[in-house]
Specification:
Length: 319
């Protein structure tokens, strides 16, 4: 079943049939939480459909289609207890950190829509990358968190955001110690539009690309795509090299004139399909393109990587 259609059937099944409250394999999963949110909102009947059946929608290899979700806004669901907004496109927004201002939420929703277009673009270049991302979206319902707004962020004990950030991201700190550790992370990530950390594998943290600071959905989507590739298990080049007298992984070496960090699958895929033209033009390299197209894709037609013109000028127009 194709990715977009599978996600739609999944949420429609939750809305129309409901899910059993019996503990099953997916108990506690993001999909289960979404279904429970719909049930509490009065959009799903309890007990009419066993939740184990939901797993069938998430288990297979999923493909992308061009389905758009603008007609299914009724399937948005806000879980005020956990402080998150479920979107029918398969993502979540953490409303504790991002807030509930309508303008902020609209920017993030537009960014999510742009991200789906980015993934469809990747599907034309390397279906295996797109399938991996599609499967991770279905399984994890990636959550967008905001850490870089003009007013900073608020760590309120008892919220899901606090428990996740203090309990997992920074290793179990509390109160002021947690705030200090988060600030240390943000200091290290000051160059970053966003970051991903395996300690919270469902989450993408927006820093410079926080919608209260960067209002361009395309810019946010381009940054988030990079982190979504990490969430999907696609990695940077970690080979250690000499970088201005220090031993660093290739992807962490930003020495003047050194561009090898751009030559791995993460930067390559971002440069090929990012929604922002600036991202595509700045990060494109032939080697990065080849790494993206060749990721678990033997026999890829790497001749497409001889020129950046089709990608940089008009994303999705392939030779």
């Amino acid at each position: 079943m194709a990715f977009s259609r599978a996600l739609f059937f999944l949420v429609m099944a939750a809305a129309v049939f409901g899910f059993s409250t019996q503990p099953q394999a997916l108990a506690g999963s993001p999909a289960r939480k979404y279904a429970e949110c719909l049930r509490k909102a009065g959009h799903a009947r309890q007990g009419a459909w066993d939740i184990a059946a939901c797993g069938k929608f998430l288990d297979g290899i999923l493909d992308l289609e061009a389905t758009r979700y603008t007609g299914y806004t009724n399937l948005e669901c806000e879980d005020s207890e956990q402080g998150e907004l479920f979107l029918p496109e398969g993502f979540r927004i953490d409303t504790t950190s991002c807030g509930t201002d309508p303008r902020t939420l609209e920017i993030l929703k537009a960014a999510v829509n742009a991200m789906l277009s980015e993934i469809r673009c990747l599907g034309e270049l390397n279906p295996n990358v797109a399938r991996r991302l599609a499967a991770r979206i279905a399984e994890r319902r990636p959550r967008l968190n905001c850490l870089g707004g003009l007013d900073g962020f608020s760590l309120v004990p008892g919220t899901g955001f606090y428990e996740r950030v203090c309990g997992q991201l920074v290793g179990g700190a509390e109160g002021r110690e947690c705030e200090d550790r988060v600030q240390d992370i943000l200091t290290k990530q000051k160059r970053a539009g966003a970051f991903f950390n395996v300690a919270t594998p469902d989450d993408i943290y927006l820093v410079a690309s926080d919608p209260r600071q960067t209002t361009s959905p395309e810019s946010i989507a381009s940054t988030a795509l990079h982190e979504l590739l990490h969430l999907g298990g696609i990695t940077h080049n970690d080979k250690l090299i000499d970088c201005d007298g220090q031993r660093k992984p290739v992807h962490d070496c930003y020495a003047k004139g050194f561009i090898d960090y751009k030559k791995d699958a993460v930067y390559g895929c971002s440069a090929m399909c990012a929604a922002s033209p600036g991202t595509r033009s700045y990060f494109w390299t032939r080697e990065g393109c080849q790494a993206c197209m060749g990721w678990r894709n033997p026999g890829a037609n790497e001749s497409r990587c001889e020129s950046p013109v089709p990608y940089v000028k008009k994303r999705g127009s392939f030779p």
